[in-house]
Structure of Flagellar hook-associated protein 1:
Amino acid sequence: MDFRNDMLTEMDRRLGQQAIVIADSMNSQNALGLDYNGDYGKDLFSLKSIRINQSSTNSSLSHNVSIRPEAGKSNEITTDTYSLTMTSATTFDVKGYDSNGKANGVFIGVDLITAVPSADGYVSIPGLGLEVKLQQDPNVNFANGDLYQFTPTSGAAAGISVAAGTGEQFAFNAPIIVSSDLTNISNAQISLSDITDVDSASSGFAFGGGLDATAPQSIRFTLADEYEVIDGGGNILATVSGVTDYNNLLEQAGLSAAGYDVSVSSIPTPGDSFEMTFNSSGTGDNFNGLKLADLQNQNLVEGGRSYTQSYTAMVTNVGSQTHSLKLNLDSSDTVLQQSLNRRDEVSGVSMDEEAVKLVRFQQSYSASAQVITAARDTFQTLLNAVR
């Protein structure tokens, strides 16, 4: 019973947490690259829907509440259980509980009026790595006190599956190509630092492919420690002076919202320029493939452990508890045997002792029979002599 209630439940949640982190981190990173066909990467893994329990006293059992991991934020997901309580038709509170059912101090209020929903209607629950979508009964509004409960990681390990049909769906290539102008004097080389966002609504990438005309597309050094960032129309987006670090030049220019960044290997010569273009030719550089491979080295599980570290810690915990239970079992067996021995000393029956007694009684019976036989023969002899 202890194994079922404690160890088994905890391990199921731990495995589920790892499944969510692997699926989310791999899917999010794959989406930042281009696949074999030159398209942005699609999901490599899929997860089953999170199971939600609702109170039988809710205003309507036809209300629909959906919970899912928020893309790119699975490192915030814990193994806790949560309750979602409506405080009005458009506001709700979320409280957290540990695996033993004790409140863990998590308390988050969400107002659907001010929250910004995603394209498909989900609203972020800050700090939990989760999104919620509320669809009320057409005839009844959500009411104060409507209660829903869910454990995001429970059963998630059993619900993970591969979504990619072929290896061509791995998006190994970067969507940006960088190059140095052929007229540059210095040996400084530009390199792609990172890709963080390819959404046309929030980055410099255009809808359907390519770069937006207002996105950073070239960098020109006017001095060794000064450069200009220029868009596709030749407009200067930013000027940076006093440069000492030639890494992440767009971030230094306040243009990190572009969704990509570049670095220069050494100090350029005034007049040197560098270009950034969309990878429309599908050039294979394995940039995103290396990023996918590097996920195993990042602390993504609750922001403190890598895939391997989290799994190893879980296996170690199982082994430690199993060994402890084995020692407890052996100790209990010893105590049981000692108790049985003490009982037998007082009221128990020794089979060896009883066997000896039976042999002794058998021998006594045989001896007594011989005495009776001898007496009978003697008496018979006396009778015969009198006759």
